Amino acid sequence: MSKFRSIIMRSNRLLGAALVEKNLVTVEQLESATERLLQVIDNGTDREACLLAILIHETKAFAEETLLEQLVDESQLALIDLREVDVNDDLKLSLNPGPCWASWTVPFDKDEDVHYLATAYYPSMAVRQYWEKELGEPIIWYACTLESIAEFLEKLEAERAGLNAQAAG
């Protein structure tokens, strides 16, 4: 696995603990999903190493909407769909998809010294700490679906591949 293994492991572990604490999953559901996650980590890619996706899509332990509702109600986060956001070209060029896939979080804007981040992993303290350390400036957090983040990152990678192919050709 990649150089982002540490953040992948920490973010998923702390996300799982938070989901149990919020009564979204049982300890048994978390243990089963964690076993599956470890298989993915051994055989898959960073983007597949997602405990939340396993719990929502594979085991159907709960609906993603339930988590989003809790984040809005309890953490006072706004919701955002990255498919509807026009990210400036400078940010697109400087954005490293690796930590975004590892933490299911995307910095999508910056205004003066404030960063705007969309995340599906807000309950994971490891994710918040990673980005606070990485950016070193104030952050405004938004809740986002896994699908929205995945589509944004896939589009970004496709655009970059196209630019690289043009430059090489």
Question: Topology, please?
Answer:
Layout: H1 5-21, H2 27-43, H3 51-58, H4 64-75, E1 78-79, H5 89-94, H6 97-103, E2 105-111, E3 114-119, H7 125-135, E4 139-143, H8 146-168
Parallel strand pairs: 1-4, 3-4
Antiparallel strand pairs: 2-3
Helix pairs in contact: 1-2, 1-7
Overview of this structure, please?
With 169 residues, this protein is an alpha/beta fold. It has two domains: 5-62; 78-168, 2-Layer Sandwich (GMP Synthetase, Chain A, domain 3), CATH 3.30.300.160. It contains eight helices and four strands, in the order H-H-H-H-E-H-H-E-E-H-E-H. It has helices at 5-21, 27-43, 51-58, 64-75, 89-94, 97-103, 125-135, 146-168; strands at residues 78-79, 105-111, 114-119, 139-143. Helix 1 (5-21) packs antiparallel against helix 2 (27-43).
CATH class of the largest domain: Alpha Beta
Identify low-pLDDT runs.
none
| Number of domains as seen in the coordinates | 2
Total of helices: 8
Task: State the strand order across the main sheet.
Answer: 1-4-3-2
Helix and strand run: HHHHEHHEEHEH
The CATH H-level superfamily of the largest domain is: Type II secretion system, protein E, N-terminal domain
Shape: globular
**Distance between the terminal alpha carbons, to the nearest Å?**
31 Å
Instruction: Tell me the fraction of residues in β-strands, as a range.
Output: 5-15%
Q: Which structural class best describes the helix and strand composition? A: alpha/beta
Average predicted confidence as pLDDT = 93
Rg, Å, rounded: 16 Å
Biggest sheet details: 4 strands, mixed
CATH architectural type of the largest domain: 2-Layer Sandwich
Number of distinct beta strands: 4
Annotated CATH topology of the largest domain: GMP Synthetase, Chain A, domain 3
Percent helix among the residues? Answer: 55-70%
